[in-house]
Structures
1.
Amino acid sequence: DIQMIQSPSSLSASVGDSVTITCQASQDIRQFLNWFQQKPGNAPQLLTYGASNLGPGVSSRFSGSGSGTDFTLTISRLQPEDTATYFCLQYDNLPYTFGQGTKLEIK
Amino acid sequence: QVQLVQSGGEVKKPGASVKLSCKASGYTFSKNAVHWLRQAPGHGLEWLGWINPRTGNTTYSQKFKGRVTITRDTSATTAYMELSSLTSEDTAVYYCARGAGDGVPLWASWGQGSLVTVSS
């Protein structure tokens, strides 16, 4: 199975800041990577797909980039509602596998 | 609007099976894959498999092969996931999610989740 190493596991930032979360795949996954946001008690929400395409209805403050083994999710102009856990997902190979998540706290 | 409504939570004993449902509405059921995932308490997400509602073809994670069965009832626009030989490790919230027609996990729509608790 492809391992997805996500970092950091948690971070804290202030309203208006920008943050970057990374995912590294254990092998080349081309651009088959999605990012999700999950708030406590809720199902995940798709943020980006195919590494860099914005999901439907998602704020342009979220952006994804990368290919091969290294990927990033950048959240700009942080808002209080961005408090959540963020996951990456690779879908180049079965089984689809996830990063362990990054918990973002807005100070 | 697209909606996926899952069945309620279940409490099962070790060794039992559980069957969850995922009722789809707001789109043509046969045109999109339905995936099943789970999230154990305090853990990340895990993908179980998916079904093509038009053909009934399924693809499963090797980890769950032999224990998981995904089916569908097109007249009821409902997908089902049955997991057998349950252990405490299967305690989790189970989600269904709508994928693209070819199975690509463009999971923009999710069910609300069904908590399965396995306990003696």
Note: The interface with chain A takes residues 44-47, 59, 61-63, 95, 97, 104-108, 110-113 of chain B (CB under 8 Å).
2.
Amino acid sequence: DIVMTQSPLSLPVTPGEPASISCRSSQSLLHSNGNNFLDWYLQKPGQSPQILIYMGSNRAAGVPDRFSGSGSGTYFTLRISRVEAEDVGVYYCMQALQTRYTFGQGTKLEIK
Amino acid sequence: EVQLVESGGGLIQPGGSLRLSCAASGFTVSNNYMSWVRRAPGKGLEWLSCIYSGGNTAYADSVKGRFIISRDNPRNTLYLQMSSLRAEDTAVYYCAGGPQRSGWGQGTQVAVSS
């Protein structure tokens, strides 16, 4: 199985400041069709996970444009341009290249 | 609008069985890769099982041989039959899938305890 490694695991952020989370995969997630099979999810407290970014850099419907995803191959980044209070929760990267999907450990974003 | 609604969780004794259901709307289950994911207390998300549009299935090592994923096409519903349950299976279980992997249910709690 592909191993996903996120950093940092804890991320205290001041509202209005930017934030970024890194995700590394043990194998390339770049498919021969040119897409990176890497998604980003946010699980807010008491809620189910919601997709933020799919295929590495595509914002899901309804996701604010302060969220962006970048990267290719084995290294990916989720950026939040200006953190808001509603962004607190646990962020996960997930590879969808292989049949048995795998998640990163999760990054807990909290407001300072 | 993509919607997934799970049901079937509860408190069960070790060694027992449960069947989780996930009713979908807004898209067709049988046309999509569908999966089950869980989050145990204090842990992160764990992928458990999937079923492809063609019917092929796969399982995580932690549940292989004990859990079975299936679907009912006319009902547009996904299932997870869980048997030989253990304390470490205690978690909130989510079904997920649909266009751009965007659909997640609200989750159903499974507690395995004597």
Note: The interface with chain A takes residues 35, 37, 39, 44-47, 50, 58, 60, 94, 96, 100-102, 104-107 of chain B (CB under 8 Å).
